[in-house]
Amino acid sequence: MKLDRLLAIVVLLINRGRVQAKDLADTFEVSVRTIYRDIDTLGQAGIPVVTYQGASGGIGLAEGYRLDRNVLTDQDLASIVTALRSVSTAHASTARDLLMEKLSSIVPASRNGDFQANTSRFIVDYSTWTYSEALQQKLRHIEQGIDQLRSITFTYCSAEGVHSHRTVDPHTLVLKRHSWYLYAFCHERDDFRMFKLVRMRDVALAEGRFERRPVQPQDKPWQQEWTAPDNQTGLTLRFHARARHTAEEWFGIENVVPDGQGYYISQVAFPEDNWLYGFILSFGADVEVLEPPHIREHIRRIAVQIAQNYANPPQT
């Protein structure tokens, strides 16, 4: 455990530059005294650890220090291969397949059996039940644009059904709940926007090249607008008992509370748009909007229209 912690400390210092001893102690769930003992051990092993004093001080490494690639263990390599294989279930890539082959070849033959077992412990399958060549073609065009720093053009249909022509600088592909999105700088809006790939048509590479703007994927900038407090509408939903487990999967078991009358109440918040109306309707007759009144009324009107659509036999 100590050896793993020492290696992890070095990796954190390389990636973050300077870290407080207390932050390291919290990360590894040990005392600050233990962290300082670890730092002494690293120094004795020849790792150039530097301590900085003052309010902005902390622990760091001498500038330019890097780990040798041989520091990766078989378990590290197995974790990387597992992650790559999982990503490949949603988007095939020859380059990714070759990388998995390279990583597998590093492991000596005598340990190959254990390595293969480690890479087969679990897999995250992001693929849908049906294969869409059109979607894969869009992904290839967008990846090419990202790799070559080339803008792309397409026609976009918004959730409200409005069509517009867009030229964007592609930065990041995002996979959320089996749907692909593109996070890109939009020339028409002069700002970053999120585009759902299934709403994009006639995707093509443009002639112009662009300079990549700073994006920190770990910060999930594409989600900030969605979760912004001023973009949220609070709802009170009442679920039938038969939909309880579905509601718990969406909102968490602690947010599905019995009302004492055989139903379950959830207090949730979402941006109000066509997606929200469709999401509520996806529960069918097993949900009722109690608040706010205007969303309740809107869902009622949609339900009436649906009933009217089925009131008579279809016209042929």
Mean pLDDT across the residues is 85
Helix proportion = 40-55%
Low-confidence stretches: none
Shape: globular
Oligomeric state of this protein: single chain
Q: H/E order of the elements?
A: HEHHEEHHHHEEEEEHEHEEHEH
Give your account of this protein's structure:
- There is one protein chain.
- The protein contains 11 helices and 12 strands.
- By secondary structure, the chain is α+β, with helices and mostly antiparallel strands.
- The strands form 3 sheets. It has a 5-stranded antiparallel β-sheet. A 4-stranded antiparallel β-sheet has the order 10-11-9-12. Strands 1-3-2 form a 3-stranded antiparallel β-sheet.
- Helix 1 crosses helix 3, helix 2 crosses helix 3 and helix 4 crosses helix 6.
- The model has no long low-confidence stretch (mean pLDDT about 85).
Pick out its properties:
316 residues, alpha+beta, five-stranded antiparallel sheet, single chain, 11 helices
What's this, in brief?
With 316 residues, the chain is α+β, with helices and mostly antiparallel strands. The chain has helices at residues 2-16, 21-28, 32-44, 74-88, 94-106, 112-119, 133-148, 221-227, 244-251, 274-281, 293-309; strands at 18-19, 49-52, 58-61, 150-157, 163-176, 179-186, 191-196, 200-209, 233-239, 257-258, 264-270, 287-291. The N and C termini lie far apart (72 Å).
In terms of topology, how is this protein built?
Elements: H1 2-16, E1 18-19, H2 21-28, H3 32-44, E2 49-52, E3 58-61, H4 74-88, H5 94-106, H6 112-119, H7 133-148, E4 150-157, E5 163-176, E6 179-186, E7 191-196, E8 200-209, H8 221-227, E9 233-239, H9 244-251, E10 257-258, E11 264-270, H10 274-281, E12 287-291, H11 293-309
